[in-house]
Design brief:
Shape: globular
Strand order of the largest sheet: 2-1-3-4
Distance between the termini: 34 Å
Oligomer: single chain
Number of helices: 8
Order of helices and strands: HHEHEHHEHEHH
Number of domains: 1
Strand content: 5-15%
Helix content: 40-55%
Length: 273
């Protein structure tokens, strides 16, 4: 990768780690709350070990690596928060993703994909963030603020990496792949993420228009190689691709068309998914 891209990656991961340290120190109530949620939901197959999870796989990236996709998932689940892992998409959804990437794109999922989440706050399943809020009692306001702040911060980090890796405008540039569109809708769990990423995209587009660039995106238009898809879990993504793909075109061409259409559905028209 280019030295400038690596420098920005190094800056992003240092900032990300510092944010996780700060949030963990400021929200010490979170671990016991997550344990209570685990018990109430009847999950006996794991224990909460990491409340707010930094993706340690980012630290393994070196200057000689080739990054082809910047992938944004939801939040860390059971396996992701284990001390022996502390890596994103290492559960069943990650296995499905890795298999599809290797089979259809010839991409090594663990070496050529950078993974961030919309929030680093752990729950066994993403939808259970709602139950976590319901259990929070007097800490609910603080938890709501953490979820919103973390989403805005993670959107900023993802966008910075996308710009650093070419924003789809040059040979070898990486795609920005947002997985899980349902909760990006207005009022969804990740509406704060959508709003912040939309703001960043439009700010960049306005800057390009001000500089006289011909390719500045219209509001809601997908930047080059910026995509939204269904989750990998329960084969939702694979089924979406099977249903919408044109067999006359390559997997990359289908990804561009389907992902860009989904982006417009999420980021245009007031954020309807």
């Amino acid at each position: 990768m280019r030295s400038a891209a690596y420098a920005e990656l190094d800056s992003v991961r240092r900032e990300f780690r510092a944010l996780v340290r700060r949030w963990s120190a400021e929200h010490s109530y979170l671990g016991p709350l997550q344990e209570r949620l685990r018990e109430e939901l009847g999950y006996g197959d794991y224990r909460v070990e990491t409340s707010i999870v930094y993706n340690e796989a980012l630290d393994a990236v070196r200057t000689g690596d080739s990054i082809r996709v910047l992938l944004v998932a939801d939040n860390p689940g059971k396996k992701e928060q284990l001390e022996v892992n502390r890596r994103y998409l290492v559960g069943q959804s990650g296995k499905l993703a890795a298999g599809w990437f290797e089979r259809e794109l010839g991409i090594d999922f663990r070496r050529e994909v950078l993974i961030l989440n919309k929030t680093p706050v752990h729950t066994p399943k993403t939808a259970e963030l709602r139950q976590l809020l319901a259990l929070a009692g007097p800490e609910r306001g603080r938890l709501e603020a953490l979820l919103a702040e973390s989403q805005r911060a993670m959107a900023d980090l993802a966008w910075r990496l996308f710009l650093a890796f070419g924003a789809g405008r040059g040979a070898g540039s990486a795609a920005l792949w947002i997985s899980g569109r349902g909760e990006l809708r207005r009022g969804g769990l990740f509406s704060a993420y959508r709003e912040e990423l939309s703001r960043l995209v439009q700010a960049a587009s306005s800057k390009r228009r001000g500089a006289g660039a011909r390719s500045a995106a219209e509001p809601g238009e997908a930047p080059p190689r910026a995509w939204v898809f269904n989750h990998f879990s329960m084969n939702q993504f694979a089924l979406e691709m099977k249903r919408k793909s044109d067999v006359a075109h390559s997997a990359w061409d289908n990804l561009e068309r389907i992902g860009s259409d989904n982006w417009r559905g999420v980021f245009g028209q007031g954020g309807a998914a």
